[in-house]
Amino acid sequence: MTFFWSSWITLISFGCWAFILGVLLFVLKYKPEVEEDGTTGHEYDGIREYDKPLPKWWLVIFFGSIVWGVVYWVFFPAMLPGNWNGLATVKVDGEDVPWTSKNELFSELESNNKVFTDNFEKSILVKANAAGATSTLGTLNELQATMRRSENPPADLQTQIDEKVAELAPYVEKLSENPNALKVGSRLFLQNCAVCHGSNAKGATGYPNLTDNDWLYGGEASNILTTLHNGRVGGMPAWRDQIGEDGVRAASEYVLSLSSDHGSKSNGKLDQTLVNQGEAIFKQQCVLCHGPDAKGMISAGAPNLTDNIWLYGGERETVRNTLRYGRAGVMPQWETKLGNERIMLLAAYIYSLSDKTGKSPEVAMAATATQPAATEEETAN
To answer: What torsion, rounded to 10 degrees, do the Cα atoms 280, 283, 285, 289 define?
Structure first.
C-alpha cells in the first residue's frame, strides 16, 4: 500500500475514533434539567422520558473496545504500515520478523511443514530403510536457507546443493518400493503434476509420458530429482530462416525415415530424394544436439529420433512445423513450493511408474498376451 493510502486510512480511523469518543464524553457530561419525579418533561403516547445513566456493562465494553483498538494499532502495522511495523513478531525461517499477513502465512506453513517432515522421517524413511537420508536432508536444507538469505552467495554453493540432491537418489529408489511412500507420492502427483502429465501420467501433446522408458533428461532417480528441484527449459530452434522451406521438407523427411514406423502410418511412402537431401542437412545442423546416430542427448534434453515416441506428434506436417517454427517447453522447478521431503516422495512415485524393462507398457502387454498359458502341472510346480 502506498504512503498516501496508508496515511489516508490512518487519518480516517483516528478521526472516527475521536469523533465517537467525543460524542460519548459529551453525552456523559451533559446533565439535562429534570422534573421532581425524575423525568425530563418529555412524554409521547403516555411514555415519559427519564434521564438514566448508561449501563456500566455497556460502558465497560465500549471503552474496552477503544483500548483494544489502540493496543492493536501499537502491536500491529495498522498506523502508517509503510513506516510502522508494530511490536508483534512471528518466526519465519528461524528468525523473528515483523508481523504481516504474509509473514504469518509463511510461519504457519513452516509450522505445518515441520509436522509433515517429522512424520516423514519417523514413519516413512525409517520403514523404507532409508533413514540415512535424514542427515543429507538436514545439510541440504541448511545450504538452501543460506542461498535464500544471501544476496551474493558463494560461487560453489549451488554446486554443493546439487551434490546433496544427487546423494538422495539411492533413498528415492528405496522409497519407490515402499507402499506408504508411493501413496503419498501419488497424491502429490495428482495435486501438482496431473494438470500437465495427466492423472495416469501418460502425458499429452507437448507433455512427456512418464510411464514409458523414454526420457529427455534421463530416467534415473538422480535425473528425476534434478528435474523436480531445478526445472527444465527445453528449446528446439526454428530452422526455416536458415535452411529454407525446401530444407525443412527434406530434413523432416529424413527425420521420419529414422523413426521405427516412419513417424505415423498415415505418412505413407517416404520421398527418397528428400531423405537423401535431409540426411546432409541433418549431419550439418542437427547432430550437435541429437547426436550422429540421432538417438538424442540427455545433457541437452534432445529427444531420440529413432524410436516411435513423439512429444508433439509424428505426422509429416507436425514434424515440418517443429522444424519451421521450433518448440519451447518449460518444466517448472518445485523446490521452493514442495520442499525436499515432498520432492523425494514425488520422485519416488514417478520413478516407480517408469518402465524399467526398456519396453513400453503396450509392448509388454502384447508380449504377455502372446505367451502360452501355464499348464496345471507348471502352476503346481
So the answer is: 150
- Candidates 172, 104, 106; CA nearest to 133 is 172
What the block records as the C-alpha cell of 90 is 512471528
Containing 265, the helix (H) or strand (E) segment is none
- Cα(34)–Cα(41) distance, integer angstroms: 7
Reported pTM? 0.73
Reading the block at residue 132, the C-alpha cell is: 540415512
**C-alpha pair distances (Å), 263 with each of 130, 236, 246:** 43, 18, 20
For the chain, first and last CA: distance in Å?
A: 77
User: Which three three-digit cell numbers place residue 82?
Assistant: 509503510
Question: How is residue 163 written as a grid cell?
Answer: 551434490
Angle at which helices 133-149 and 157-167 pack, to 10 degrees? Answer: 160
Q: Provide the CB-side half-sphere exposure for 310 (13 A, CA).
A: 18
pLDDT tens string 118-143: 999 999 999 999 999 999 999 999 99
Q: What is the pLDDT of residues 253-281, one digit of tens each?
A: 999 999 877 667 778 889 999 999 999 99
* Cα distance between residue 262 and residue 266, in whole Å: 9
The DSSP output letter for 150 is -
Buried b (16+ CB within 10 A) or exposed e, 353-369: bbbeeeebeeeeeeeee
pLDDT category, 18, cuts 50, 70, 90? confident
CA 25, CA 2: separation in Å to the nearest integer? 35
